[in-house]
Every structure is written in C-alpha cells, then in structure tokens.
Please model this.
Amino acid sequence: MTSPPTHAADGEPGNDYAGWIVARAGATGFATELDMGGQSLTADEPVSAGGGGAGPTPYELLLGALASCTAMTIRMYASRKKWPLESVVVRIRDTPAHITDCLNCEIQEVGVRSLDRVVHFEGPLSAEQHTRLLQIADRCPVKQTLARGIQIRTVE
Model:
C-alpha cells in the first residue's frame, strides 16, 4: 500500500485515500497540521508539556468532537420536532487529566477512562422535552462509537 496523500483534499475519484484525515508533524516540537476534508487545523501540546500551545491537544480534539456531536444531535432532533430549543451548551472534561497518561504511556495503559458531560438547554422547553433531549444526547454517533469501543488498525 502506498502512503496517503499529503492533503485529504487530494482524493481524486479512484484514489484509495479519499476521505482520510491527514496529520503532519515537523522535525521538532509537537505542533501538527491537520487536513480534514479541506479544513485545516493545528493541534499541539501546551507549553507546560513541552509544546508550543499553537492549538488544541489531541484529547481536546477528541472531547471537542464529542461535545459538538452531542450539541448537533440535540439540535437536529429539536428542530425536527419543532421544539423551542433556543440553544444548547455542552461541556465535557476528562478525568483524570490526560497529561498523566502522556507522562506514563510507556509503562501503563493510557486513555480516557471517564468523561464528565454537562448539557444545558435554553428555551421554553417542557419537563418532558428536557428529559427527552438528555436521552437524545446519548444517541450522538460519536458518543456511541466511544462507548462501544473502537478497533484501530495500523496499515502501511
């Protein structure tokens, strides 16, 4: 198998790597450029961990994916039901902090073992609508993927 293209957008018809997320790190530091379907983003580690603080950490990106998917799933459902949801705010944090995992990754299993999520709704929702939207939060595809576990294969 050949190497993926430098940019995810390089996916021409028939290209085996169309749709790939591409991460490219330089020779020094931790700053990593991400190309995601034509969108660019920089990930990095905080200065306190030896990075440059140029972007969110990989764990923050993971938590951001979960928070944004939760908010989008709730918004989609409320819109489809024509419920008066004015806004939804999702807060997520990992426990314990990921830096401990980073420091100990060579000697022990690592990974987020527990996440705290707070979902706040604005708008004149009934108690039943509020309860249903909290249930819908658990239907978020990213949450379901993480909760079920995921197998990651490394290929060349």
In short: The first strand starts at residue 22 and ends at 25. The longest helix spans residues 58-81. The radius of gyration is 19 Å.
